[in-house]
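FYI - complex with zinc ion, inputs then prediction.
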Amino acid sequence: MAFSKLTDCLYVVAGGVFPKCNTAVIIADEVVVIDPGCEVEDLRRLLISLDLNLKDIDTVILSHIHPDHITHAARLQRLSNCRIAANEITAPLFNEKEAMKQFLGFSKSNPVRKAWEQLVNERMYGALDEGRVDEVLSDGDRFSFGDITLKMLYTPGHLPDHMCIEIIEPNLVFASDIDLTEFGPFYGHPNSSIGDFKESIRKLQHGKYNGLISGHLKEPLVTEYIDRLTAYSRQIGIREDLVLSAIIGGAKTIPEITATPIIYPSFPNVVYLQFEKWMIEHHVASLVAAGLVSEDKGKLSSI
Ligand SMILES: [Zn+2]
């Protein structure tokens, strides 16, 4: 089954791994959809099983601007005239897709931009559609829908606009791309931040939730999430060791480091190589800041 019932009011439609994501659905006074990146047909099946349909959706909430999370937002808005809610960083990016491309590092001068647009249009079709955010959210904002209250929790790092959504009554957190996948944390954009990501992981670990809903795990609800988050965060350190090891081994530039993939197992698409390069750049900056690597005229060396 593509969806699971977590409580009487809360469901998750499994989208799973990138380029899809898991979608949370709340059925209370309103029909609320968080991150519509699952298959629309699976979302429709869930709603039909509850004597509802896509046109009954009242609100779509976006956790952040990534195409695999916003995929069907504009389409659902066209179908149901639902309001779209997003935080103050995400909102203008959703309303203006050129701003979104620049935010993600794919400005017109980036030679990988076309390949990225092609990837989005082939595998996350709809994410670049024009749509509008009707309600701008801030950190700590609360919404009550019948028996369920949602609270917005800023958790930057993955991207500066990344936000988790606390679901207060069952005491769960929709953790979006703090997703506990085997791949590990993704910070593959120029404005991603390893330090912020670690801090956001710690924030969730202190949340005292009954469980975490991952944006990408096949079994989305994780109850033993505190230990899992520790292991997840540790992957950042492992990657950093591998980057340092490559520099000690003689790699002097980012392309020389990425000649042997560290984060992705391989690069089926030039876009993934771009993500790898941006992630390695963050690690190099972190190693330079820690005094373990020096940079002289664009050449890296270990200290
Ligand atoms: Zn994301």
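Residues 239-302 form one domain. The pocket of zinc ion is lined by residues 64, 66, 69, 158, 177 (CB under 6 Å).
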